[in-house]
Design a protein that fits this description.
The complex is a heterodimer. Chain A has eleven helices and no strands. Chain A is mostly helical. Chain A has two domains: 94 residues, Rna Polymerase Sigma Factor, Chain: A, CATH 1.10.1740.10; 85 residues, Winged helix-like DNA-binding domain superfamily/Winged helix DNA-binding domain (Arc Repressor Mutant, subunit A, Orthogonal Bundle). In chain A, helix 2 packs across helix 3, helix 4 crosses helix 5 and helix 9 crosses helix 10. By secondary structure, chain B is an alpha+beta fold. Chain B has three domains: 56 residues, no CATH class; 70 residues; 103 residues. Helix content of chain B is 38%, strand content 17%. Chain B contains five helices and eight strands; from the N terminus they run αααααββββββββ. In chain B, strand 4 and strand 5 form a beta hairpin. Chain B is elongated, with a radius of gyration of 43 Å. The chains are: A mainly alpha, B alpha+beta. Chains A and B meet through helix 3, helix 4, helix 5, helix 7 and helix 8 of A and helix 1, helix 2, helix 3 and helix 5 of B.
Chain lengths: 205, 326
């Protein structure tokens, strides 16, 4: 039995930032609560980047151990906890992707998927209903809706930058587009998302 | 993209710069004031703060992107393994004297994993898992005591947490009780105020109905003494000769121990209509559903508090017109 399972109930009401502060004070149960909140999202992110469930779970483990070891480095002035975790997970997953020299293979696999199509890896643990935190569930639904509403070509360049770690020039070369077009599409997509997700961003800040 | 970039564009590019390949960097760089790709286009000082704020917003947009993916809850053993890993690390870090695992003594943040313990090709991998593996190799006879120590520490930690949690809950209950009491007090005050306002609204409505009733008679009241030269008033009497409404202005507040008293001048003598005070600058408004029969005039005098059975003090206001219809 998880020794902290009986304590997490009182932590559920705490904000993400408060949990990180407790983690910095070496409180394992706070890390457990953060894990409950964000592990499904971070695992999905790592799987999307790595296309491998076992590797993604390892990345997830690394992310939370890093949070445990460096929780005091979290700076709320720089980003929300959610974004902090997401960017740590993305960075680790992309590092792992590069280290395995499977970049090309993965890019080809994702390039075949329709832009905006996400979470189609068919894993038995994938279940939107399994996300317990209602706020995070709502966040998933809203972001999914807004991403789907982006024009396909804008979504494509944004996802190539985010999930494949490609530079604008690499995206241009890979997609056969002028660099200016890639930049314009990326900027347009980001501006639309910022406007569409302002409610979510306000909640995070 | 060659035209002048706006502050928003610069902020956006700065946020996107965080996504660019940075081998070995576990964290993305902080939002820059100008995009890394275009250092010549640094933000003017005037909008540097705006660029930084917008960059932060776009940073959050990027952080939201994975929420478009279907969430993938990890298997329960993933969390169990994590918790075991960190609690084991804590226990080992707190008991260096036991000699359980010398390699565990350093903090994981230092990244001091034993050589060869980390898997090839995973440079950023924390040393925790490898530490627990390496700890079991050199001293097989030590692991039971290490395990016991870890369990005891975990138990002590849990007990400590429970005590702390209990204390926190009690404090929270006390805080909530205080908040509840304060809310109840506030609700009582609001209710009382609401009652006063309702009463005022009722009075105003009554007065309004008298003033606007058909065939209402209006009688002006004029000051009698030079000291109250600014005082004046109007009396509205409804056609039924019962409902009335009076509005007085310019009355000075009465001196200490004094009150104003209203008198109806009726056929059979002076009838008191009650006493009242006046506040500086505030009108006095009153009304009733009763008026003595045969009233043909009205007076307001200054009497000793709490009032007089018959007018004895000086007149302050008096009707300028006779109420001939009463």
């Amino acid at each position: 039995m998880d020794p902290t399972s009986s304590q997490t109930g009182s932590l559920a009401a705490l904000s993400d930032a408060a949990l990180v502060r407790l983690v910095a004070e070496r409180r394992p149960e706070a890390l457990g609560e953060l894990h409950d909140r964000f592990a499904p999202t971070l695992l999905a992110l790592a799987r999307r980047i790595l296309d491998n469930h076992a590797d993604a779970e390892e990345v997830l483990q690394e992310v939370f151990i890093q949070v445990w070891n460096r929780g005091e480095r979290y700076d709320p002035a720089r980003s929300s906890v959610s974004t902090w975790l997401v960017l740590i997970a993305r960075s680790r997953a992309i590092d792992r992707l590069r280290s395995r020299k499977v970049v090309e293979r993965t890019h080809e696999a994702t390039a075949q998927a329709a832009p905006g199509e996400v979470g189609a890896l068919g894993d038995p643990y994938t279940s939107p209903e399994a996300v317990e935190n209602v706020f995070i569930q709502e966040r998933h639904e809203r972001v999914r809706r807004e991403m789907a509403a982006l024009p396909a070509e804008q979504c494509q360049v944004l996802e190539m930058a985010f999930y494949q770690g490609l530079t604008q020039s690499e995206i241009a070369a890979k997609a056969g587009l002028p660099l200016g077009t890639v930049k314009t599409r990326t900027l347009l997509a980001m501006k639309k998302l910022r406007n569409a997700l302002r409610h979510e961003i306000r909640q995070l800040l | 993209m060659s035209e002048e970039l706006t502050a928003e564009d610069r902020a956006l590019l700065a946020a996107l710069a965080a996504l660019q390949p940075q081998s070995g960097a576990p964290f993305p760089p902080p939002p820059a004031r100008a995009p890394a790709q275009d250092p010549d286009r640094s933000a003017p000082p005037g909008d540097a703060a705006e660029v930084e704020t917008l960059s932060r917003l776009y940073h959050e947009v990027l952080g939201l992107m994975p929420f478009a993916l279907a969430p993938a809850p990890p298997r329960p053993e993933v969390k169990r393994r994590l918790m075991t890993s960190i609690t084991g690390t804590e226990a080992a870090a707190m008991t260096p004297a036991t000699g359980v695992a010398p390699a565990i003594g350093s903090t994981p943040a230092a990244g001091a994993a034993p050589a060869g313990a980390a898997a090839p090709g995973s440079p950023g991998r924390p040393a925790l898992a490898s530490r627990s593996r390496s700890a079991s190799v050199p001293g097989r006879s030590r692991w039971p005591s290490a395990l016991a120590a870890a369990l005891i520490l975990a138990l002590l930690g849990t007990c400590g947490w429970l005590v702390y949690d209990l204390r926190e809950r009690r404090a929270a209950i006390a805080r909530l009780a205080e908040q509840r009491d304060a809310a109840l007090r506030h609700a009582g005050e609001v209710e009382a105020r609401l009652g006063r306002l309702s009463s005022q609204v009722g009075s105003m409505r009554d007065g309004f109905s008298v003033v606007t009733s058909p065939a209402v008679e209006v009688c002006n009241l004029r000051a009698v003494t030079p000291e109250q030269a600014d005082a004046r008033g109007m009396l509205f009497v409804a056609a039924d000769h019962q409902h009335w409404y009076m509005s007085l202005r310019g009355l000075r507040p009465p001196a200490g121990g004094k009150v104003y008293q209203l008198w109806w001048v009726a056929d059979h003598g002076m009838v008191s209509g009650g006493t009242f005070a006046a506040r500086p600058g505030a009108p006095v408004e009153m009304g009733s559903e009763r008026m003595p029969a045969g009233t043909k005039g009205v007076r307001i005098t200054l009497e000793n508090a709490p009032g007089s059975p018959a007018p004895g003090g000086p007149d302050v206001l008096r009707n300028a017109d006779t109420l001939h219809t009463l």
